[in-house]
Design a protein that fits this description.
single chain; mainly beta; 4-stranded antiparallel beta sheet; 3-stranded parallel beta sheet; 1 helix; binds calcium ion
Length: 257
């Protein structure tokens, strides 16, 4: 068994380790084992368990890592996923998994999002490559929506009572993030006190209709290094537009009239 650039989270078992229990030799490289559970086990023993004599584990994050299984470049740290509870195992810009892999093991040209597998100094560990460093700028504007069936009056300006569209324009270095790559953009409403207007149910996917949760849209990069994501429907008040996982440097606030 060979595992390269895989992420294991929130798996459980009644026997052995919840992340992986390998009865034969395994080769594991650039992977993450975090938040898995095993019956009457904790720490490293709940993440990984190897019974082969020649298992090799390299450049891998294991929760509770003790060094017992040997290998180079393995460690224990919070992987700082964007939103693991919602199944979003992409890396935040301060993740210790960024550039922590070994390029020698990489066999696929792209990550799970279809973006280049190796960005920055080295390949990241886990299933997704963080691309915050390749994003040069983010701009966000609000324009009226005067398409058929919408209430814009045709003067181009978003005014109170009109349907409006938020447009986020992402600029990247096309040399590193080629055409066809996708950047994820989040739109989060802000309440009148300036706090994110997000219902608690958003965290665990239990929301019913009408709940306030951030909206994620994909901006597809073109050959000029630009991508656009839009939110049709500007809610009352302000909206914070961000590149997902990249922190405040790549967030912009816009006001909806
Ligand atoms: Ca990298």
């Amino acid at each position: 068994m060979e595992l390269i650039n895989c992420s294991f989270y929130d798996n459980s078992t009644n026997w052995w380790a919840g992340g992986i229990s390998a009865l034969d030799d395994a080769t594991i490289t650039n992977c993450i084992f975090w938040g898995n559970t095993g019956r009457r086990r904790d720490g490293e023993d709940a993440q990984v368990d190897f019974y082969g004599d020649h298992t090799v584990i390299t450049n891998t994050l294991v929760e509770g890592w003790t060094g017992r299984w040997g290998g180079e470049g393995n460690f224990d740290a919070n992987p700082k996923w964007v939103d693991a509870q919602k199944g979003n195992l992409r890396l935040r810009s301060n993740s210790p998994c960024i550039d922590a892999g070994t390029d020698d093991a990489v066999t696929e040209p792209t990550d799970l999002d279809g973006n280049p597998r190796i960005l920055g100094g080295r390949v990241d560990i886990g299933a997704y490559e963080n691309l915050c460093r390749e994003v040069l700028d983010l701009a966000a504007t609000v324009v009226e929506d005067d398409a058929e069936g919408h209430s814009g009056d045709g003067d181009g300006v978003c005014e109170s009572g009109e349907d409006c569209i938020i447009t986020a324009t992402v600029a990247v270095d096309p040399a590193t993030l080629p055409a066809g790559s996708t950047v994820r953009v989040t739109f989060t409403s802000v309440d009148k006190d300036g706090n994110p207007d997000v219902d608690p149910c958003c965290a665990d996917r239990t929301c019913g209709p009408g709940a306030h949760c951030p909206t994620v849209r994909k901006a597809r990069i073109d050959s000029a290094g630009q991508g656009i994501a839009t939110l049709r429907q500007c809610p009352d008040g302000a909206v914070t537009v961000c590149i997902e996982g990249c922190g405040e440097r790549l967030c912009r606030d816009v006001d909806c009239p």
